[in-house]
Amino acid sequence: MKPDDGRLYRAIWRWHFYAGMFVVPFILLLSLTGAIYLFKPQLDAWQERHWHSAPFQRIVSPDDQLKAALAAVPGAQFYSYRMPPAPAGAAVIHIGLPDGSMRDVGVSPDGRVLGIADPDARIAVTVSRIHGSLLMGKWGGLLVETAACWAILLIISGLYLWWPRGRGLGGVLWPRIGARGRLFWRDLHAVTGFWVSGLALVLLLSGLPWTDGWATAFRAVRAELGLVQGPQQWKGGIDFHAEHDHDAMMRAQAKPVTAGLSLTDIYLRAGLEDLPEPVVLTPPGAPMPFGPPNGNVWKVSSETQNRPLARSVSFDPVTGKVVARERFADKHVIDRVIGYGIAWHEGQLFGWINQLIGVLTALALMTLAVSGVVMWWRRRPGGSLGAPPRPADAKLRIVAAMTIVLAALLPMLALSLIVLAAIDRLLLPLWPRAQYWLDRRRPV
Prior knowledge:
Layout: H1 3-37, H2 40-47, H3 49-52, H4 62-72, E1 77-82, E2 91-96, E3 102-107, E4 113-117, H5 123-133, H6 137-162, H7 181-207, H8 213-225, H9 246-251, H10 263-271, E5 279-282, E6 298-302, E7 311-315, E8 322-327, H11 333-345, H12 352-379, H13 397-409, H14 411-427, H15 432-439
Helix pairs in contact: 1-5, 1-6, 1-12, 5-6, 6-7, 7-11, 7-12, 13-14
């Protein structure tokens, strides 16, 4: 290895170390919550199992089911009707309360209210909030986004450190047989990192559209370049939380369905459209999960998490004529790419195979995190953090170029790098004890 190559290696190792120290706790938490959220359809079905297995004597109309739901919660507003997954299943009617909160009302085929649930209390929603914002709102979301950006830097720098440089394939593509101690942990870390790096990058990049910082900048660039086509179908760069923006919903109250087509009429038309489940019927004027309120139409939409399969149909509320059809193929190519990424991220693009790959990816990321901590702990000098020393007098144009490109694409990475560089270059030299605690050596 040439002297310049050695300095480059140490510089990248130093950034890899700092990224790992910051990201490891997030990797463990986000991998665990992400693996759980992959099974959102199964979790939701399990929580509603008693609704869909209740016995019934007869079948009433959807309008009668709606009346029963509204009678059970005085003063509530009707927002949407989710069609039963099977003829013997319950309908789920989404309503808004006067205080701004939401409820899901399960109604049996014979019109009995089987239960009233807070949608925000669902397991999948709680896991999603931990995964997306650590239950800390907007600031938590920015913290998670920053961690995701550093994780991308961690993977890219890790691939550079992994590069064989003339060594054999043992410890590169597979762990060396018989390795013990630090060598075992090094091989486990390096080999696992290589095999999972591609999947991890896809997961991290496909999660960026949900963020605040990156998604807001992305939306602004799209608008400036004229690449926007229709409303955004995911909750990135806007103030929606969990599944809905409750304040926006209360400002846009659903209009009572008193004239023209009834809920039952729309239900019958929806049954002819053969949309992927779950299928939701939204009345005129009702708020939509993402974007502006529904217009003066009845909207029938598939809310499947496999977004490439999602479709919606809008009906005139008086004549019942189809006034619009929205298909995934009609969206802008950028939205389609993001839609595929989100479906993969949520584990729904290829069904259980996608879920299995997602779980294995999460386990591999947790293995990386644990093995990295063990490696650090075993090599850490006593009384020191054990950070790799910063190489002195090295121009390191490659590191600078790579960092600038990544920072330009990831706003939160850029902001955090500025803060870290200021600490590393300006504050630490003024605090020798802190410098010594970091690496126990002077920069070389």
